## 1
Amino acid sequence: MKKRIGVLTGGGDCPGLNAALRAVVKTAMTKYDYEVIGFKDGYKGLVINNFIRFKPGDVSGILDKGGTILGTSNRDNPFHFMMKKDGVTEYKDMSDRVVENLHMHDIDCLVVIGGDGTLAAARDLARKGVNIVGVPKTIDNDLNATDKTFGFMTAVETATEAIDKLHSTAESHHRVMILEVMGRNAGWIALEAGIAGGADVIVIPEIPYDIHKIARSVLQRKNEGKSFSIIVVAEGSRPIDGEPVIKKSEEESHDSVRFGGIGNKLAYDIERLTGIETRVTVLGHLQRGGRPIPYDRILSTRYGVAAVELAHREEYGKMVSLKGNEIVSVSLDEAVGTLKTVPPDGELVRIAKSVGVSFGD
Ligand code: F6P
């Protein structure tokens, strides 16, 4: 009997998911003559048995497409699965159902493409005896056991392009322009796009900011004859004497808090302290959508191929990972739990400071 691989994409989408799926399906079907079953909308498809049997043509023409042809969800943890009964919301452990469905489909190995929440559930399924291999994705780049998650560099490209565009209008109107980007606990997008786009101030969750120091650096620029400033702020940032700005809470999600609004808070304070007109752009889900840049297409292809190779060698309970320029594997235990945040005294922060960027610290 042919071996069979299951695959799903979980968590928030990001550019490169389709490229990773394509690599998994092509390698499994053409190199090893496996069958591949795709479960729809993350773990939900495994719980309710919503699936497709891949044919090789199904992944043709998707390398450059954003999103995921399988669908995804950042709220369907099989160990804490939301169900509605008589209009009442309740949460149930549906992991046994997942195991049953995998047996029913004769799945030899499940490839799970996801971020911290999706991979934490993968680790827990592995502890229940499921043969599982993880692939790291997220625009946040906050997974600890890999140098890069795919999707991140495309998000940085999108944010950098936004900064480039904000520069010209900031200069014309002599304004402060604030760009709020994603980044819950980790400020990687703000930091890298901020450096690449030549931001004057970068605000990240790892370095709580002093609004007076930010205002001072904006005024200093004005005194030097630079009539505008560009500020990039990660959504999860907070002032030294305050809290992050939370938009809402979504109970059923792994990371229940939804941030949003720190850009407006900064704008209000900066205008008040400097008298300079300030405008805010919230980049939001534009960072998650659209075509992956070549870097992410290549990385997700490398990961997808490596995941099938792990499955073929029956090396389960592992996640593929980038270390330097090598694709390696790490245990799922190592891969989840601790997030990779920006070291406040790391090289990127130091070089940004060397070229005059203020972090408000
Ligand atoms: O984890 C990826 C991410 O895009 C975060 O940067 C952001 O805070 C969150 O997802 C947004 O989630 P949602 O798509 O549910 O609004």
Note: The two ends are 62 Å apart (CA to CA).
## 2
Amino acid sequence: MSLFSSGNGDKRSEELIMQNPLPRNSGKRWRAGVLGATGIVGQRLVKLLSDHPWFQLTEVAASERSSGKTYAEAARWHLDGPIPEVARGLIVKGLDPTLACDFVFSALDSSVAGGAEEDFARAGYPVISNSKNHRMDPDVPLLIPEVNASHLDAIPFQQKNRGYEGGFIVTNPNCSTAGLVLVLKPLADAFGLEKVFVVTLQAVSGAGYPGVPSMDIHANVVPFIPGEEEKMESEPQKLLGKWDGARFIDAGLGLSAHCNRVPVLDGHLECISVSLKKIASLNEVREALRTFEVSHELASLPTAVRHPVVVIDGDDRPQPRRDVQAGNGMAAAVGRVRECPLLDIKLTLLSHNLVRGAAGGALLNAELLAARGLLHYRVPASESQLVQPAAQ
Ligand code: NAP
């Protein structure tokens, strides 16, 4: 389901999207490339870009296995519906940073993402990454627009530090971290956070394709996901921390994570217990979550939802099958808010690992960069200059 179509019954999001203005440079869209376009996250990006009001998909790139083929030949398509027309006939390129586009999304396997993303940034491309490689770099924003848009102030520092001209790297967090931090943010703002204990039940699509062998996951739970607990214990510190003009300052939270792979297709469920700095009633906690609303700047972005946390009533919710599309897949669904005998409160949250936790999150990051004038039209070498767009 596209985030920009109106067939999903989410009335609030539809209203929001219809209010969203097109860029003021109307008629011209930024040209986007997708590195790792054949993978499970890359395919989501291709689909979301196929009817995006600001961006136009012009380039796809992947490994030597795919390059030289058309996208339709190279991609083993996992999504409902056909491969978008705009992508079918594109020739898949390699990772040479000479693509005809204004910026790139990276959905590359982490074995190659680190170097490739640096090559593109050095060649002048803004790189909006899903991969883990640069998330914790001391000069790279790890971004959830609703949480820490101010961390984009680190971009000029990064460019100076690395000698990048025009290019830079911005990353989104690990798919489990994305939902967790979206829910922690309103609690941090209203009450302050001391400690967070989280147990995840993560979908198989979080491991890419083909991911976990079917004989390991069918009718089973695997209580280990390599590297996941470390990411969940470090990334929220950066996301909820501050950029002080020269470095990121951690939030200083106590954090402990247990990560499990479960036989669910899409959607990571997380059971969390939290201790707060300020005493709060359950109603105050529910209210803080329910009323969490994005700024005017964010509300004007095509992929944004006005309320990125959706509180669901019902003792047995949220559930992946029923609730994973909350806010077009861009919201975290929260339920079971109750007292915790060990810490202060506990609740269950769910977020779409491939939308909020990957492609949709990256798209929102790109939209914020566009709105802040941080994307440029790259013109052919013969004209040899960067053209500043008239953004939001
Ligand atoms: P995937 O399905 O395995 O796709 C990997 C992509 O990387 C494919 O396009 C593949 O191209 C390309 N690739 C692999 N080796 C390459 C090489 N040597 N040179 C160039 N391209 C190469 O993985 P995914 O789940 O989409 O994940 C992509 C990235 O996003 C990973 O870094 C992952 O950690 C991150 N991420 C994933 C999720 C999720 O929920 N799945 C969430 C957040 C972040 P070929 O098809 O040609 O092999």
Note: The longest strand covers residues 193-202.
## 3
Amino acid sequence: MSLKSKVTGLILAGGRGTRMGRVDKGLQPFRGTTLVEHVMRRLAPQAATIVINANRNLPQYQAVAGEAPVLPDYLDGFEGPLAGLQIGLQYCPTELLLTAPCDSPFLPADLAERLHAAMQAQDADVALAVTMESEEGGEPRRQLHPVFALLKASLLPQLDAYLATGARRMESWYKSLRVAEVMFDDADAFRNINTLAELQQHERAPAPAPAAPAGEPAADAMPVAEAQRIICERMTPVAATETLPLRAALDRVLAEDIVSPINVPAYDNSAMDGYALRGADLPAAGAPDATFKVIGIAYAGRPCTQTPQAGECVRIMTGAAIPPGCDSVLQQELAAHIGADTVTIAHGAIRPGANRRFAGEDLKAGGIALAKGKILRPADLGLVASLGIGEVAVQRKLRVAFFSTGDELRSLGDSLDEGCVYDSNRYTLFGMLTRLGCEIIDMGIVRDDPAALEAALREASAQADAIITSGGVSEGAADYTRDILARIGDVAFWKLAMRPGRPLAFGQIRTEAGSAWLFGLPGNPVAVMVSFYLFARPALLRMMGAQSTLPMMQARCTEAIRKRPGRTEYQRGIISAGAGGEPQVRLTGAQGSGILRSMTEANCIVVLREAQASIAAGEMVDVLLFDGLV
Ligand code: AMP
Ligand code: MG
């Protein structure tokens, strides 16, 4: 039996993690993923199953944990590692439990193996890692790592008994057990990341991460879907709502379900101008035509109160209530003969039940007519009006501040000096944010200067829910940006496995004046738009409390496209109806990330998936549509 099959990995993420601000340590973005996922990857080859102990942000942990359970402590008000250990031992389906903190992305690959060997050799209950730490100027010192431990699952009753005495310290519990200490040479492997400064520093250091298997993106480039997931998981809807008259609510996000107070339609009515009758009176097959006597007339809004008897009918207009006893309507153009006060109908002209609209067939009283989170479109306004409702509760508008960075940028109206470009990103961002229904705060151009950038970010965080910047996040350019952002927020710099739009900064700015989510988009005009659509848009929609996905479809590509696997590419295309009406797509010429024309000519984006290589003309490709009808 392999060692792995006997080991359960316990990731300790239960602490308060206050040194990294309000964001949970394990969920910190780190080298393309989160800290806890690094720990999971490191433990996966060493354990049959993994469990995470966390006390806050459980859904976020669950989202990254996949199959692994995420369990909170049950020891009230403590949140120390022993409480995590208790829940871990209780869950542990195997003989042994291997523990590691959620912020130790470099833990040794042979941790379980070496701890186990010592445990067996010394007949111990617990094996702990030890390293030699050399402090500047001082003697090297033995450093015990009680949270990197291998324990027998059978220790649970002893731990319960120890905790029952009110004691809480891990080290002193271990003193009551037979402990094997195992010296590891690589002290760095046990390095846990405690502060944002450390996180940023390691983010930049060369990665000791395991090599990615062939076909996957380089270890340091994050897949688009993963970045989207990490971003979206952090977002929560803003709480404030407002009540607006129906028309003012167009394009706003519904804050409450709209429950229908009535049936729509409120009564059975006619879908046609014609004659209402009893279906049972229609002539059978082979029977002669039947003539009905017209006994009255029903208009929309003016019902006919008479009840037709056998052989009688009522002249009826579209939308008029179906008279009592009737269940079918013959549209007038299908009558065999219309007399002064009669109508004659042949067999088969209509089926019984024809042209009757049922009460409540559009909306039932008490049913949810529109669900919270819906972005109200024209049809929705109509639907709400059909219920007689004139005001709706919507989410307050999201406030989004944005600015462009770059010494080379000039505003419209300025002269274009040598080597300069007009700032176009603020216009595309204006358009995209306005379309999304945000309240925008245009902060202009910010020079490539640390003090100016810091001032702009501080000001933006005081006013906005989110901040969108363009430029200055590519490698090299971003060095001073990182330092500022480490000081006034938790922001990670990602390299994404995509084109265009490889660099992205994402995190939270927190100042005395307020906090805001930051999306640091790249500078190139097409990259700005693509990264906005892919990352900022879904995140902002979530903050707005909205449910929305981009419509994706498939089309036949009329030309060959060169592409290498390992990154997702977003090419600008024109989709149209091809032979037989099948959608086909071609590219809009040169696809450089600075060529905005490729975007203005396009009506869609062709998405070439990460694993995809070059495609031949005639292959099907995924396409994201720009505009919908409504
Ligand atoms: P950066 O990401 O700052 O290195 O910028 C990358 C490229 O995008 C450079 O060619 C910039 O001149 C260009 N760029 C950056 N910001 C803007 C902007 N607001 N409008 C137009 N081009 C920009
Ligand atoms: Mg720049």
Note: Residues 206-217 have pLDDT under 50 and may be disordered.
